[in-house]
Amino acid sequence: MTDYFAMSDEVGESGNDTDLGSGGIMLLPDLTDGNGIVRHLAVGAGKDGNMYIVNRDNLGKFNAGSNNSQIWQYLTGVLGSGIWSTPAYFNGRLYYGPQGGRLLAFPITNAMVAGAPGSQSATSFAYPGTSPSVSSNGTANGIVWAYEKNGGTAILHAYDATNLATELYNSNQAASSRDHFGAPNKFITVAVADGKVFTTSTNSVAVFGLLP
């Protein structure tokens, strides 16, 4: 091991079950800061609702006094009740789905993540939140897909990647049960390939495509 990052309050968070272990890490694409320097960053979050953005060339190791002084960015409390999923990225926006909260889009400017979301969904996602994924035509027509565990029915949501307040589709919107695909499961990430959207219930795989 050549480098690492550990939170300044890791012992307390572990004891209170608010540790980082519930969320996945994502490597961001190369980003240029305000001084024209290319930065190699990664982002992660967990049960404490904080966002940790680290410099992959210098992770910061451990500082008992503060997280601020050792990592690229430390955004406290921006993810509500915590993360049990992995984020997504598209066109300068970082997407997170906290448990019990709305799907959030954080703009990134000059290699810095905004301290508040630029847009959010109208729907809130109960435990364990949602793990967003993105489909697009290159850098255009981005869609953020999100799986909702809602009572007895799983729901697939599609949002405009530039503004999460715009919902393009959900599998409960039809007057009939045409698009229902079964009982919900936990920790599901939607996959997209060849113009089809793949998701799951507790006992099946559902494949969505365009209507004829």
Kindly describe this structure.
This protein has one helix spanning 10-15, and strands at 5-6, 26-27, 31-32, 38-39, 41-45, 51-55, 61-62, 73-75, 88-90, 93-96, 101-109, 112-113, 119-125, 133-137, 140-150, 153-160, 163-170, 191-193, 196-200, 205-208. The chain starts with a strand and ends with a strand. The chain has a single domain (5-208), classed as Methylamine Dehydrogenase, Chain H (7 Propeller), CATH 2.130.10.10. The strands form six sheets. Strands 9, 10, 11, 12 and 13 form a five-stranded antiparallel β-sheet that branches. A four-stranded antiparallel β-sheet has the order 2-5-6-8, with no helix packed on it. It has a four-stranded antiparallel β-sheet with strand order 14-15-16-17, with no helix packed on it. With 212 residues, it is mainly beta. The longest helix has 6 residues, at 10-15. The mean pLDDT is 95. A hairpin with a 2-residue loop joins β18 and β19 (196-200). The protein contains one helix and 20 strands.
In short:
Helix content is 3%, strand content 43%. By secondary structure, it is mainly β.
Number of strands: 20
Distance between the termini: 54 Å
Strand content: 35-45%
What would the principal axes of the Cα set say about the shape? globular
Work out the radius of gyration. 18 Å
**Element-by-element helix/strand order:** EHEEEEEEEEEEEEEEEEEEE
User: How would you sum up the major sheet?
Assistant: 5 strands, antiparallel
User: Overall pLDDT, averaged?
Assistant: 95
Number of domains: 1
Question: Would you tell me the structural class of the helices and strands?
Answer: mainly beta
CATH class: Mainly Beta
The CATH homologous superfamily is called YVTN repeat-like/Quinoprotein amine dehydrogenase
Regarding quaternary structure, how should these chains be classified? single chain
At CATH level 2, the architecture is 7 Propeller
Task: Assign the CATH topology.
Answer: Methylamine Dehydrogenase, Chain H
Instruction: State the helical fraction.
Output: under 10%
